[in-house]
Task: structure prediction
Amino acid sequence: MFQQMKNIDTAFRSIRSFAVIVVIGSVSLCGFTLYKSFRLVAEMQNKIYILANGKALEAYASDRKENIPVEARDHVRMFHQYFFTLDPDEKVIQANITKALYLADASAKREYDNLKENGYYANIIAGNISQQIKVDSVMVNTNEYPYYFRCYATQNIIRTTSTVSRSLITEGYMRNVSRSDNNPHGFLIERWTTIENRDLKIENR
Result:
């Protein structure tokens, strides 16, 4: 009888040990599953999918600090393209200048007013002149705020009889503002000035 009780006690201990192992394994599995689920959700929250021409393109969310140099350079590039891309059409000129002035402060507005008073835009319309710009490079110093920038670009002024290539160098500062449809990068150009604007070559057409 004592042997039978001993066998029952041994069997009970074995079952108890097996049950403990199963419980521990189940808890560990559940914990691992929860950890992987939360990690997957966190990774998915950093991904954005954009539809372009019927295709889903993956974009990644990141800290603004990581993108400041890239966004700042693109902001400067956009401003110069809007401000200096002109065609002999008053509506086109006004539309481009309006877009540019959303990206800069009163220093750009003063430059526009000066050009307008000197008849620059009227001459473009009257002479059927087109003006294009190619931004060669933009240097931005993000170590100090507001961020200093210098822009190097080439202007092409296309007249009926000739094409003039000009070197354009400008500088200024940028500060942070709220993002909007009119200002997607969230920067505002301040103290914008032209350092150089000289003829490089003239080609007859």
Summary: The chain has a mean pLDDT of 86. The chain has two domains: 2-48, 64-204.
